[in-house]
Protein: Trimeric intracellular cation channel family protein
Organism: Kordia aestuariivivens
Amino acid sequence: MLIYVLDIIGTFAFAISGVLIAMQKRMDVFGIFIIAFVTAVGGGTLRDVLIGKTPVGWMNDLNYGYTITLAVIISIIFKNKLNRLRTSLFLFDTIGLGVFTIIGVEIGISANLHPIICIALGTISASFGGVIRDILCNEIPVIFRKEVYATACILGGITFFVLRYFNLKEDLIYIFTAAMVISIRLLVVKFRIQLPSVYQK
Amino acid sequence: MLIYVLDIIGTFAFAISGVLIAMQKRMDVFGIFIIAFVTAVGGGTLRDVLIGKTPVGWMNDLNYGYTITLAVIISIIFKNKLNRLRTSLFLFDTIGLGVFTIIGVEIGISANLHPIICIALGTISASFGGVIRDILCNEIPVIFRKEVYATACILGGITFFVLRYFNLKEDLIYIFTAAMVISIRLLVVKFRIQLPSVYQK
Amino acid sequence: MLIYVLDIIGTFAFAISGVLIAMQKRMDVFGIFIIAFVTAVGGGTLRDVLIGKTPVGWMNDLNYGYTITLAVIISIIFKNKLNRLRTSLFLFDTIGLGVFTIIGVEIGISANLHPIICIALGTISASFGGVIRDILCNEIPVIFRKEVYATACILGGITFFVLRYFNLKEDLIYIFTAAMVISIRLLVVKFRIQLPSVYQK
C-alpha cells in the first residue's frame, strides 16, 4: 500500500520534470503532455515490453494517467513558480527513483529472472523514462553523459539482493534499498560526483 | 471491407509522406524505404507491442509491405512531380488519420481496455508513426511542436465512444468518427490553428 | 554449437564498435556500457519484441551480458590501441553480421512467419542494434545514409531461402548464407560502394 502511494508520488514528480524539459523545448501542450507521460511511465513501459508483461502497466491502472494529467495541469498553471519548489521536486524525484527501482526488481523476481537481470529491470524502470524523454527531445540522454542516476539504482538493486540473501523481512529490504538509492543520489548531487568519461587520445 | 481498403490507402499516403521526408534528409534507398515503412506502420506496431498483440500487424498481412514498397517505387520514379499531387496526398493522409484512429480504438476495445486507453491507442496508431519517423530523422517530433494532428485523433476517439454510448450502429460510428478526425484536421490546416505552447518566463 | 560461438564473437565485436562510438561522444562509463549493450543486442531485442518472444533473448542467457561487459572493460583498458586492431575488429563485426542474420531468419521460421518477414527479421537482428545506437547518440542512423549494411543481410536472407527451397542441408545453408553476407560486406567496403540516395531537384 505504502509503496503504491510512493509510486504515485514518484510518477507525479517525474511527470513535472518532464514538463519542465518540454517547456524548455517550447513544445505545445500535447507535446508537453507526452513528454511528461513518457518521463513518468516510459521506464516501466520499456520494462514491461521487454519481459512481455502486456498490456503494459499504465493501461491497467488509470491512476498513473490521472496523476500525470494533474501534474501537467499544475505545472502549466504554476509554471513561473516551479523554480521555488526545486528542492521539494528534487526530493520527490529521488523518492521515485528509489521506489521505481524496487518495483522493477520485484517484477523481475516474479518473472523468475536472474538477479542480475532483475537489477537491470529495476534500473530500466527508474531511469529509462528519462532516456526516452531525452531522445524525444533530440538530446543525447543526460544519464549517459554526466548524471549519476542509474548507478544509484544499480547499487540499490545489489543491496536488495544482498539483504534478501540474508532473509530479511520484505519491508526492511524495501526500506534499505530505497534508502541506498536515495542517499547515493543525494550524495552525488551534493558533491557533484560524476562517473569518469573515457575517450581516445 | 471498406475499412481495409481505406487502411491500405492510408498506408500508401503515409508511406509517401515518409519518402518525402527521407529524401529531404538525402537518405539512400534503404533509408527511404525504412522511413516510409516506419511512417506507415510504426504507430500500429507501437500499439501492438504495448498491448502484446504479437507478431505485430504487418507481419501477418504482407499487403502492408507490398503497399509501402509500391509507394516507395512510385515516389522515387515521380519524385519531381509529387509536389503537384500535394493536395491529393494531403487528402489521402487525412483519410489515413481517420481510419487508423478507428482501427486503434477497435483493437483497444477487443482487448477489453478502458475507453480512455482505447482513445490513446487510436491516437498512437494514427500519429506515432510520424513520431518514430521524426526520431529516426533526428528531429523533435513535429506533432509535439506545432502540428495539430494527435488532437484530431483524440477528439475522434471521444466521438467514437459518445456515439457508442448511444448505441449507434457500428457503420455510423465509423463514419462519424472518421468525419470528425478528417474535418478537424482540414479546419486546422486551413486556418493554421496551433495548440498553445507553454514556456517559463 | 559453432553458431553459438560465432554469435558470442559477433556480440563481442558489435559491443566494441559501440564503445568506440560512445567514446567519440565523450560519454561516461555507464553511457559507454549501454551503447555497447544496445549495439550488440539491440537488433535481437527489437526482433524478439516485435514477434512477442519475451522475456527477450539476453534475459535468458547471461553470456551475452558477460561478453559485452568483458568487451567494454577490454576496450576501455586498451582504448588507445584499438585502432591497430581495426582490421580484426572489422572482420569480427562482419562475422557477427552474417551470424545474426541467420539467427534472425531461423527465429522467424520457427515462429511460422512468411519468408519475406523472416528475411526482415534477419536484417533487423543484424543491423538495427546500430540503428538504436545511432539514435541514442543523436545521429541519423548511418545505415540509412551511406553504409551498405542491411543490403548484405537482405541478400543473405534471400540466399537462405533459395538454398532451403532446394533442400540443402542446414549446415550448408548456414555456411553459404554467412558467406554471402560477409562477401557482400567485404566487397562493399573494399570498393566503397554506396546505395544511391534520392532527392528532389
In short: The helical segments of chain C are 2-24, 29-51, 57-60, 63-77, 86-110, 115-136, 150-165, 170-190. The mean pLDDT of chain C is 91. Residues 86-110 of chain C form the longest helix (25 residues). Chain C touches chain A at residues 20, 22-32, 34-35, 45, 49, 52, 54-56, 59, 62, 65, 76, 79-80, 82-83, 135-138 (CB under 8 Å).
